[in-house]
Amino acid sequence: MDAAESVRRLVSEQSEASLGTLEGNSPFISATSYLFEPDKGEELGNFYLLLSHLARHTKNIRANPHASLLVVEDKKEVPILERARVTVLGVVKEVGGEEEKRIRGAYLKRFPWAKQILELPDFRFYELHPHEIHWVGGFGQIRNWKLSS
Length: 149
Hints:
By secondary structure, this protein is an alpha+beta fold. The protein has one domain: Roll (Pnp Oxidase, Chain A), CATH 2.30.110.10. It is about 25% helix and about 45% strand. It is built from four helices and eight strands. Strands 1, 2, 3, 4, 5, 6, 7 and 8 form an eight-stranded antiparallel beta sheet that branches. Strand 1 (about 15-25) and strand 2 (about 25-35) form a beta hairpin. The longest helix is centred in the last third of the chain and has 14 residues, at about 95-110. The protein is globular. The two termini are about 25 Å apart. The mean pLDDT is about 95.
């Protein structure tokens, strides 16, 4: 399996990530769930996040839309440096209109618990569109690549 296929598999199997945003000149990391939709072509695909407008990470995204997601293989019995992991760097934008309705349905299918959260007025969907990937397939297996879009 090549690195791109390994990344798609990892982010499809997992559903939680660390979200990195910039708060001024400092990094700010928080936890989030995500919905991943793979691309049908050469690109990786997009990540959809359900975020509150009141959260620090959302305020950070509004000030600077560049962010990253760190997804780590969920194998607690394996030392962290031996687990597969990927950092996805990209730009985040709010999702609206018909796209928001589509994502809402897909998100609720994957995360039924989010129904209660979506009843709150301050939560919105955001899309992280990747432009760079840093993949570690385990100890000593590393690959970086930029995406065309």
